[in-house]
Amino acid sequence: MTTTIAPRAAATAVALHGVSRSYGRGSTAVRAVDQVDVEFRRGTWTAVMGPSGSGKSTLLHLAAGLERADSGRVLLGDTDITAARDEELTALRRTRIGFVFQSFNLIGSLTAEQNVALPLRLARRRPGRSEVRAALADVGLADRARHRPRELSGGQQQRVAITRAMVTRPEVLFADEPTGALDSTSARTVLDLLRAMADNGQSIVMVTHDPAAAARADGVLFLRDGRLVDHVTGASAREVADRLVDLEH
């Protein structure tokens, strides 16, 4: 049975049908994702949690087209990306998919506005300075446009990374532990930003180990040993933490 995250009335942003992914061969093979069926609805924010090694990041990478499934189907909206060629996936990641990493992945030699403008340039668009600066202003960094990553705090760097991922207005934003490298104050700022984006209709799928971060999402999906084992909506941080402890034991 397919698990649907959020209201049935909403269209599907991303869907995985019977998706599996293994690493290694023979007796040393590890099945990181095992026959997962899930639909993420448009305009919702879903957190993905589970014990270490449960397959969270692999699931995220499969949904975003960063890795290929061994079996099953992956759909971005109505587009089947399961067998898409590398150049097709690259084009999708430049236009329809945004990805945010825990380590920010900003280019150190570029300023904040140059980092944000990079996806537009790669998509062969000529970004206007006002467009890029307006995007930075939306995340409270109008006065940091000319600063390089080393001149920014961790929270500021992550907000630049989110802005870079969002500047092409992707259908789905994937975030892999976006607050994992941040202090609590910076993490709250980033989560507030993601919450505002979701409230404005942005589809977000986020891997996290932090129950407080997961509780800010609309729903939480739990994995164990590569399998989808539970999902909750409207849970508190304590309820999410308790469920995670249950899975770990």
From TrEMBL:
ABC transporter domain residues: 14-248
SMART domains referenced in this protein's UniProt entry, alphabetically: AAA
GO cellular component: membrane protein complex; plasma membrane
SUPFAM superfamilies: P-loop containing nucleoside triphosphate hydrolases
Any one Gene Ontology molecular-function term assigned to this protein's record: transmembrane transporter activity
Record key words, sorted: ATP-binding, Nucleotide-binding, Transport
UniProt signal peptide: none
Pfam families found in the cross-reference section: ABC_tran
Domain of life per record: Bacteria
Listed CDD domains: ABC_MJ0796_LolCDE_FtsE
PANTHER family in the cross-refs: ABC TRANSPORTER RELATED (PTHR24220:SF685), IMPORT ATP-BINDING PROTEIN (PTHR24220)
Name of this chain's protein: Putative ABC transporter ATP-binding protein
Organism the protein comes from: Actinoplanes friuliensis DSM 7358
